[in-house]
Amino acid sequence: MKIRKTVSMLAAGLLLSLAAAQTSAGDTIKVGTFLAVTGPASFLGDPELKTLQMYVEEVNAGGGVDGRQVELIHYDTGGNAKEAVNFAKRLIQKDKVDVIVGGSTTGTTLAVMPLVESSEMPFISLAGAVSIIRPVKKWTFKTPHTDAMAAAKIFGDMQRRGISKVALISGSGGFDKSGRAQSLELARQYGITMVADESYGAKDTDMTAQLAKIRDTDAQAILNFGFGTGPAIVTKNVRQLGITLPLYQSHGVASKKYIELAGDAAEGVRLPAAALLVAEQLPDSDPQKAVLLSYKNKFEAKYGDVSTFGGHAYDGLFMALEAIDRANSTDKAKVRDEIERTTGFVGTGGIFNMSPTDHLGLGINAFKMLEIKNGDWSIVQ
Question: Is the predicted pLDDT of residue 24 greater than 70, yes or no?
Fold first, then answer.
């Protein structure tokens, strides 16, 4: 492939070569997205959209993809699955996008997948549930770590701490339910016995009744699987009830917003998360560090605190653009094939190596176990 131009996309010498595509130079490359920019999942969609806009602007300022501008077409679902399907139809049928990078939540992603598959549209989801990629669907990929990986990382940490009896509490959303199911399924492999299994609704503002039941068990730790305001309420209620057990959260709260909402109650909480949150703490030899610091510094200079959720959009966007580059085309089948061939892609979530049997391409080692200390993230050694 003849490289006519290169634009600096990543950091510290990692360049994305942008080659001539097989259409006229005046055409745009259309990247579609549907995100929960408003509503209860806005802490996901807002940084995702900002990330996509920031980097599409940077790509275009550098000349685009070999002279072709990248056009971002986005719709706000508010986290509503029906709206997501309507917007996906519009992106595919009316806007005629070349690839979709989006789907902030598990619910909206799962709702759209049948349409994506039947329309043969390359789709990189930004949602967490393992069911998005297991079993593998031909046209669907994802960038965030799965709930199954999160549960495994948490249980491994519990095992090292000698914890064998755990109380589970989870929310009612698609991510929450999937995380609960994966936790229950994996617990036995780590010698964990679930001594409680409580839940709460999306609009609940107090979980003390469920937590009081947990307090009366012989649990040695509490695991909350959820996202949004629910986990912060659980965290506060745990401390208000005087429960001193170790509290674990999922990667669904990997944002400073959770610490702000939970306040001092978040002190000591552990969770698995992408290395992005602790980029400065990584050794210089870590291959991700330069990429993470570049993204983090750019985002925070423009918008404020970085979150792993915006990082998922960064990974999805550049994975798609690199696939288009390698395909030397926006032909959807060729782009799909190249996404599936993604190897050694250094992103914010880890180093991705996809294959026909793995449409995520990350292992459990892509997660860091973090603990909140003095209102900030620290790596558990």
Answer: no
Domain boundaries of the chain, sorted by first residue: 5-146+288-363, 147-279+367-379
Q: What whole-number distance in Å separates Cα of residue 326 and Cα of residue 8?
A: 16
Distances (CA, A) of 173 to 67, 178, 199, 234: 43, 8, 11, 15
pLDDT at 381: 77
Would you say 89 and 29 are in contact if contact means Cβ atoms under 8 Å apart?
no
Q: What is the DSSP string of 172-236?
A: SSHHHHHHHHHHHHHGGGGT-EEEEEEE--TT----HHHHHHHHTS--SEEEEE--TTHHHHHHH
pTM: 0.90
**Burial of 344 from C-beta contacts in 10 A (0-12 / 13-18 / 19+):** exposed
Check residue 21 and give its pLDDT. 37
Is the fold of 5-146+288-363 the same as that of 147-279+367-379? Answer: yes
Amino acid at 204: D
Q: What is the CATH number of domain 5-146+288-363?
A: 3.40.50.2300
Give the pair of three-digit tokens for residue 196.
């409680």
Q: Which residues of 289-322 are buried (b: 16+ CB within 10 A; e: fewer)?
A: bbbbbbbbebbeeeeeebbbbbbbbbbbbbbbbb
Fold topology of 147-279+367-379: Rossmann fold (3.40.50)
* Position 93 confidence tier, pLDDT thresholds 50, 70, 90: very high
Indicate if the pLDDT at residue 234 is higher than 50.
Answer: yes
Cα gap 21→14, rounded to integer Å: 21
